[in-house]
Records
---
Amino acid sequence: MKNMIERYVYDVVRRLPESSRLEVEKELRANIDDMLGKDHSEEHIEEVLLELGEPRLLANGYKTKERYLISPAYFDDYVRVLKIVMVIFVSVSLVFGAIDLALNLNSQTPWEMIGEVFSRLFGDSIDSILMAFAWVTVIFWIIERADEKTKFRVWKLSNLPEVPKKNSPKINRTGAVIGLILETIFAVIFIILLISYRDILGIYENSNMVAPMFTNEVLVAFIPLLIISIGFSVFVSMLKALYGVWSIRLTAIYTVSKIFSVVVTIIFISYPNLFNILMFEKIAEYMSTTSNEVADGFALGIKIFIIVLIVGTSLNLITTWVKTLKGKQIDK
Amino acid sequence: MSDLPLLTNLVVELRRGTQMIAVLSQLKENQYGYSLLQRLEEKEMNIEAGTLYPLMRRLESQGILTSEWDTSDTRPRKYYILSDMGKEILFELEKEWYKLAKEMDELFKEQKK
């Protein structure tokens, strides 16, 4: 049963660094030999090896330094960063997946489409979670090795984080992230529609367009401004998800972005000749009235829309400011 | 009480730090792995073989022990002994041990009053 000792010794030393294998093997054999004494019976060999214990644990005892990917000292930071990075990676992959789906959907039937969207977005999410895992782990591994070697990370009192203001009104993080994802998706779809599909909107008769909805030149002139406005508001949603608390600064930026987008929207929809006169004529034809009356009706609708927009935004901003300032006061 | 796993763990943890001092105290003269194991057993300082052998090697790599192979016998043996630094360290550890024992004693006495 010599074989058993061979296998045991091999199982220990294979876990050790190359440089110490020979020495440990020689010593371990000598020790086993001593422990066996004169009795080399199978039972005694078994007894001795069992006494030495599991090869994995024995090998671990020989190691001079602890070995791990992420040390306990870094583990909490690792988990915290991992969570944030996962949220970001999943959001980004969902957004890109959604864009790609919107542009290159292969499905013919609605059922196929639902299947495609689900499998695609689900698969993308899993991929991005694994990717977040890999990246965060590698980066922490590098930080830890570098720290071991150079001790570059000197702890200072000034490194302490600020205590979060208890009473600052919290932004619901999950809600903010979901909002961000949806907003991004809609923004992307809207921009794609504006750029690539703006001339398919209109009134059709027997699948021929008879009247476009917009006056092309006016719409084209507005595209940059609309993109800036949408980009700005997506950016502010990102800040919201990131900070998680209504600070004065965030509320101020939020206010600016809201007012900016309301102003842009109002200028856009009330711009003369935005809606094509041909469309008004066509609608007038269907409703057997004059194009002027249709245009008036449209103008009224736009006015109501603007009023609702202004009132809604104002209420939103006022409640946000009240929340922010209240939190500030209690803090003091 | 004594077969509570929690208690067992705590005892193992408590003894772990002292094991090293016990091992060093017996290495003022040459010892090989098994002889040291037996010697500690005789003194009822029980340490597992799987703990002792790696510990000796680690102490050597830290410079506390020095070693020498004796191949004159039919079975080769690796003998360990305290290095000069090891002797100094053992001396300091012994002092520390007595200090700790005294401090603990005081603490326990205070509680009993």
---
Amino acid sequence: MIAIGLDDGAWKDVEPGTEALVDRWLVGQGEAVKAGAVLAVVVLVKTSIELTASADGTIDRIDFAAGSTFARGVPIGWLRETA
Amino acid sequence: MHVQASADDEQDWIRKALAEPVTRAQWRVWRYRAPAIVLGLSQRRRHDEIAARAGAALPVLVRASGGGAVLAGPWMIGVTVLLPSWHPLAAGALVDSYRWFGELHMRVLRAFGVDSRLLSPQELRDGDSRVAGFEPLPWACFGALSPWELVDSGRRKLSGLAQQRRASGIALVAGTLLWRPPWSMLCEALDRSDALEALAARTIDCESIRESIRKSAGFAPSSERQREDFASDLAAAIDAALASVLEGG
């Protein structure tokens, strides 16, 4: 399973305790996606960031819905890579 | 390139440029003909309510970058830089991208007698979030502070920064206050008239910084013509500085 979320590097110099916002998901649970497809848009430090699929696969789980916030190191969903 | 345009033209230019992969650094320096409210991405759900309150004479737009609402207008210079994802100035952490952009603004402004400084992440972490005794107003871009934004010695905000990181490329945006905006337009549209004093107190503009020097030197305040000349010259200087950094020219 591949975690969907922000790399740790994205959080460098971000004030401790700051959370990122899930702005929207562009895919749904169970949906098949291709590598490079945009999965979600999140916002951190006034930056909107597209999260893309790192491999072909299926969205296994969405843990954080649009409008919710998440902390450093926490995946917002999971991608099951196509075997 | 510096252009007179509407805030809508700016958003349209960014949208179209990022619809395809960005293959080289591009930029625009914007002077705005008319006022407009530009909401941050996460404020879009409030668009209709704010637009109804703003009325037909004050367009309300949504940008694709984060942060609070901006009151664009003749009192502000906007800058947009588009970079390919592989560009050295786009490498590193999100916050690092703001640093060179803030430094460039600070350097150009200083040449025009506008002294400001960059707000480091450490100062943000360790410092008091209040400015002039007022708490942050995160619903307004200029009401809160983020890393590498420009402030004066009293931590009043002069330039705000934001960005979007798309699969197709990166867009960095900046807004610098030339003279004092009519903040009541923004506060009323966002139904935050109660925060007018705080927003005014938490912000500063180029003209106010320059005027304080002019007054102490015994000069008269700037005329309307001097104000326009300053805005035009500053836009050209930012444009030239960006050309130097992004094209080495």
---
Amino acid sequence: MCAKRVKDVPSQVETTGHVWDGVEELNNPLPRWWVWVFCLTIIWGIGYTIAYPAWPLISRATQGYFGSSDRIAVADDIARFDAANAPIKASLVAADLAAIPGDEALKTFAIPAGASIFRTNCATCHGSGAAGVQGKGYPNLLDNDWLWGGDMAAIHQTITHGIRNTTDPDARYSEMPKFGADEILDATQIAQVVEHVLKISGQEHDATMAAAGATVYAENCAACHTEAGTGDREQGAPNLTDAISLYGGDRATLTQTVNNARFGVMPPWANRLSEDEIRAVATYVHSLGGGEAPPAP
Amino acid sequence: MTSPDAQPPSLYAAREPIFPRRVKGHFRTLKWWLMGVMLAIYYIAPWLRWDRGPNLPDQAVLADIAHRRFFFFMIEIWPHEFYFIAGLLIMAGLGLFLFTSAAGRVWCGYACPQTVWTDLFILVERWVEGDRNARIRLHRQHWDREKVVKRAIKWTAWLLIGLGTGGAWVFYFTDAPTLFFNLINGTAAPIAYITMAILTATTFFFGGFAREQICIYACPWPRIQAAMMDEDTLTIGYRPWRGEPRGKQDLAGNGDCIDCMACVNVCPMGIDIRDGQQLACITCGLCIDACNVTMDKIGKPRDLIGYLALTDETAERAGKPVKSVWKHLFRPRTILYTVLWGGVGIALIVALFLRSDFDVNVTPVRNPQFVMLSDGAIRNTYELRLRNKFGEDHSFAISAAEGSPFALSMDGQPETRVLVPANETKTARLFVTAAVRSEAAGQERTELRLWIQDLGPIGAELTNPDRAHYDTVFYGKDD
């Protein structure tokens, strides 16, 4: 292969014959310790595959002498953090619900914990930023408009039992009649009552029709939504006079709502989340900007 | 040249043991001083105290990893101010460029820990086993009683130095006196013992046995530094035009070099500087000292081996006057490095004095961009991150610029004050509301300047409260 061996003149070291841009590669010997280190790394590698999971087999890899497992390590970490958090969780469960947002220590623990629980369990419907889905019936939890109340106790109740589900007998339940579909009102009456709702929510409306609609409203809607249209949280009847409409406040959407009614469902969480988790997520939701103080007795 | 019948060279070579002889001279003296000063800084620094008040550690130099703080005398660095460290690293890099382009591998020869500790280990070696000849004899000797005893003493001393090195290192990361006490009675954290064990082992092995092998095979600096030198860089060189042909002085025609091998015998890298500038030379200057002793003895001028630049060679060979040292040092290249180095340094100092003792960061919550309230008002949410670098609890008041149309609230209260404990970071949610049908509520973007005023510690009225501002944007419902 290399018929004649050439020596570099100044260093008297043999060259490999490789030349790049006039620079010759010298064939200096490797230090012997380097070879030993190389052998050691191989021995270390073999030892490593014995000590730790390494060789893939048919159903799983070799387990390794130390039985090291990331899964077990994570489980241990979780157990360790659970143990460390046990006292604060216990005091969170023991605390008076209304007092939690004012308690610095509980709040400091509950808000980040609740945020993480929210992102895992609630964000699917309410959105990762808790803004819900406007016009689709997933309530925005950031504003100050509540269907069933926005103080700690009300939020806690909603999360624990859910809304209008059939799985939890304690779920709060309300049902608006399908005024159009069930032929309770005719199309004219529905058009009139929609004008009335547009009027009380401060939007452009047909005054004559709205006046007629006021009567229809008083007879059919006021029982739940109240005379003034401010809603009733006891029954989950939304406030019709404010700027926020869960499904949309325009003429077409309102007509559709009166015709077919709406039936938003939230599952109960008591069987999925522990009491401390429910309280944490309630504290988080309460902190988002719409949290209310408990009603005066 | 060709040698077709020679055996192929071995692929591997054993390390040639090196027994540097003792030498006296200017560079050796300089190196003793540098070694003393640098080792003293390394060992003493963690024990210096610096009073920072009751809530902060009183160690002058401390990298408090657990609490994410770095303390250096009056300077305290928080994680978000890591650019200071980056700036220092840039300065270290530029400094290295400067020194290397001016005077070659001075870092390698005088300041590198590998050089300093190896020097210290060779000193210990000489105390225990004697100078070069005695050490060579001992090396060739069989493992008799003398050799066993001397080696045991030497290795023990090396191990103790290694232990001290690793021991001093861990003191930089926690309170040194406490850790010292804990290390002694066995209650220190395992990581402290592990770190000490690793550093003891590496110091022992690198300083005692690996020595020049680290510089030649393990270290990238020799390659990088060589790229920063040019023909005006001062490096250590032999003057063959004066020294050659080497040999006996009384023979006519011989040069000044009497081939006494002094320069080779003192070299910690085991090289012959007379072969010319080479990768293994760390420019420690000991061959200069050794040669000067010989030149003095035979009555010849000094500096047969000395600091010289490539350009000097041509001038000296031609018998022309050489450039002065200052001309070698002050060149456009070194001046540029100095200016850059000084510029970064000044910028860091200015930044250090400009930073305030509290710090605020505002992150607008943009998921969603805005929230409409039931009365039609538009609200934006901002995450405030307040850092209180004072040694005591301070409260801070948040307000919008004067005459601003926005209403601020926090926790449902219009009182927007945040109490931040001493030396901590606190986050708070600030709600900013624009009234229904206001201009800000109806347009897409409105500039918003938030003022954060330091109200000082509770109960103490600040006469001249410090305040900072943060500019952000308010999003309205643009339809």
---
Amino acid sequence: MSQPLLKVVNLKKHFPVRGGMFSRVLARVKAVDGVSFELGKQRTLGLVGESGCGKSTLGRTVLRLHEPTAGQIFLDGDDICTLDREALKQRRRDMQIIYQDPYASLSPRRLIGQTIQEPLDVHKIGTPEERKKRVEELLDIVGLRKQVLSRYPHEFSGGQRQRIGIARALALNPSFIVADEPVSALDVSVQSQVLNVISRLQREHGIAFLFISHDLAVIQHVSDDVGVMYLGKLVEYSDSGSLYRDPKHPYTRALMSAIPIPDVRQRAKRIVLAGDIPSPMNPPSGCPFHTRCAEAMPKCSQVVPPRVNAGSAEKPHYVSCHLYEYSPEAPA
Amino acid sequence: MSAPTNAATSAATLPDEHHESIWGKAIYKLRRDRAGMVGFAIVMAYFIAASGVWLGIWGTHWSDVEGPKWSPMSSEFWFGTNIIGQDIFQRAIYSTKTAFEIGLVVAVLSTLIGAVLGALAGFFSGTWIDAIILWIKGVLDSIPFYLFVAAVAFALQDNPYAMHVAMISTFWTTTGRLVRGEVIKLRNFEFVEAAKAIGVPQITIIFRHILPNTFHILLVQATIVFVAAIKSEVILSFLGLGVQDGVSWGLMISESTLEVLAGYFNNFIWASVLLFGLVMAFNMFSDALQDALDPKKVAAP
Amino acid sequence: MTDEVAKTLLSVRNLVVEFDTRFGPVRAVDDISFDIFPNETVGIVGESGCGKTVTGLSLLRLVPSPPGRIVQGSIILNGNDLVQLPENDMAQLRGDDISMIFQEPMTALNPVLSLGTQMTDVLRQHRKMTKREARDVAIDMLAKVGIPVPEKRIDEYPHELSGGMRQRVMIAMALSCNPKLLVADEPTTALDVTTQAQVLEQIVELQEEFHMAVILITHDLGVIAETCQRAIVMYCGNIVETGTVEDLFERPRHPYTKGLLESIPRLRDERIAELPIIPGMVPDLLSLPAGCRFADRCKYAQADCLQTPPRLESSGDTGSGVACYHPLN
């Protein structure tokens, strides 16, 4: 059995909230609270959820841009949590990130050329001429012209800046990229352009992606596997086809029904959730979703549902919900 | 497969004609600010005067006793002479050089120190680095300025730069505080995290990525400190702690206190007018500069 | 003629809004005309820079000026031309006859004033009431927008509420004087999908209850499909197509509308390799082409499209129209 590119085991990231005279810890924001998944080589895992679910924090923690509170992260079999600073800097070449906000993710006072070339400079890859050539190659891959190199970020539109961010992330030839809502801040007609760039990277360059988004349609377009997050926990996790054909978790179902569909014939019956998303500082007991779940049972407020495979051994479909606990469905 | 890319690329025209730089926008706004432009023109006039003194073109006879004491304004002595018989005009012109010297040295150095310490404090905010820098800032801010200068002057035993040292040591704190605040804000932007993700070392992140985004603050602060330095020098001259080996408006004013009592105002008036002129003009320019560089004031949505 | 006048609630004709930039004046809204009828929900849809937000702001004369200004056109509401109205009279209308809600509820609500204060301020501004009466009306409004325990929450501050709640408070404030027209500028864009669903439902319910017309400004075609009866599509300061939502989605006539509908990522049965795209970018408002502004991105463009910009041609009295020399369908 081939080793997954990325394996995350019971990852937790808690942020202490300090206050009071001596900066005591008043509470903990459990942004990521025990998440496990695997990412295969050249595969894309989509992480979907709404604000406060922890998906962005998860993406950054996996790259150790936040230090994990607990858990393990295996990149090609090596636990990167145990690496020292120098070794980590080396491993960074394999894992990169592209951001949601095209206006904040590029250094405003640096030329585009400097920004894209920086990773090569920092890791001292090749000669200066070779680096310049590589930068031009990268521009080609993302579909930008050479003239952009001598300009500043503010001269470009959101879509162009995202492409620049992608070029920067590709510079070190990473084996996987964390894409944190890369198209959410873009205009609709530009979203598809940038998504096509990403699709091409998947197909032609074999880059694995951890693709984070709140948009189920976008996730479906790019992902092989999908994980649904709610309040720091992964509530459903399966391959993309199974998830969209047969969403099992009540939250996933509600999420799917809530998307406004640009189709007049399908005014879908909407599952409107009651209440608001609870604060990650004070998550509900038991299953985090029970406060808004139409199918909640008494057990749901007391016991955290374990992860169960409601699919088959070859095509697992993991769900953390008491509805599936005792009767895993027969494989389709 | 690559057709969509080409279509996207070729049609992705860059706005070649309307290449807009950050400074370009600022200069445009500045040019439309009448008060600011007038201020700038006046400051330039002073600067030319000071340059002339530096180059030895004029103002060289500031210490020569050339004429009778208290001679009135005439074609020979444009501003008249002072109690010793020195040409007030020469002294006043020479003082522009003094003013710019103090202003520039103090402004540049205190801004540099404020930028560096502020950036370090902001980036490492919450840690001991920040704590120490804040503590130093707090201490310096609590010492009454003129007391501090007196102490420094004493410690440096009449070194002509005692005054500069004292001013720089205290004026950097405001710049430092502003930079620190801005850096704390910028630190959370994604481009900083992106640099970290690439493996850029922290010091490089601070000085190459973050600090350049504070230039608008630094520029405005430098102009404010320039004016503060000139004004402080006046008081220092009264205390005898000012310029030692030259003449300044402050010195002239303090010298003229006796003359005024005797009814001779030329020294006092001209020194004050020139001082006031530069300070006023620089303030007007500084305000306009601040408005022009304010990132929140956008021209169009 | 009088029938038509009686029917329309709001009538915009030849509106032009300019902004000063260092390269010269730019027309964010360039000669648009449309009507709004009572009790209907109309969407104004387009991407950034198309002028939809400026249009919304113009209706309430809230365009920041300088650098912007209305240089031409009329906005007739109840027989009054809002463009010509003196500011004092306009202030009377705002909140009373015509109201607006914005995208970012945190910045639209004053963080240092309690909800009660802000709401009663609005009420007492436009109606003669005592503080007590205003407070009662405010509590009532909060209940109507679905805020639980409104008599307690009315004394809370904006930061104590979630984004969805704040948005609802803003809606409550906007509706408290029962305006005939509500302009909603991207009201749910900053909200989560599940909260968005709640807030949109709320707007639809309230619209029925209060008998008002709603102009919903958004870039999200899905939201338009779900909540609006008619829609206006804007591109680069112009209106390129208007019509009922059914017509727009099933039989789009303008190539931009069609391209937009095709390129949105949506749930499909099969995963596709590449999404259809509209190639190129929105043109720079400072260097607009001579002809149709969409021509250089349009796969149906022909020679006449490049000469002069097409005008909006209306057909029928449903207010549908398209600005294209070679409309589809």
